[in-house]
Amino acid sequence: MAEYPRLTEMGVLHPEQIVYFSVNSLEYTDHLRIFYERPKGSLLPASRTYKFPRVQKRLDAGDTDAVMASNPALLEAVAELDTLLGKRESKEELAATVLKELRQLEEDVAIRSNSIKNLVEKLRTL
Q1: Residue 11 zone, left/alpha/beta (φ > 0; ψ -120 to 50; rest)
Q2: Which CATH number fits the domain 5-125, given the four candidates 2.30.29, 3.30.2320, 3.40.50, 1.10.287?
Q3: pLDDT tens sequence across 43-60
């Protein structure tokens, strides 16, 4: 979990169960909702919502107008979630490629094995 300090700070105990997340804004608050794929019979919630108040930010030092910006904590959490889900996607793609290569290898071995069996049968008939 040290890999995701902001998520740990937010109380996320099982980052490996996160499926996706969404961010929405309502008035001056950003809402981060994290969705989980829980094991059957789990008493943990399928999603959790976290609220982050927007912060005022001045565009220039001399400017009197301020804009509302996303909370830095929210930006850190979203970056960690992007990293987490990106790694998982990469692993899934790699696993799919390895399985595809394994199936191809099994097919090649089966073809070669049948070819050798046919040669042995021809030897028996000579």
Answers
A1: left
A2: 2.30.29
A3: 999 999 999 999 988 777
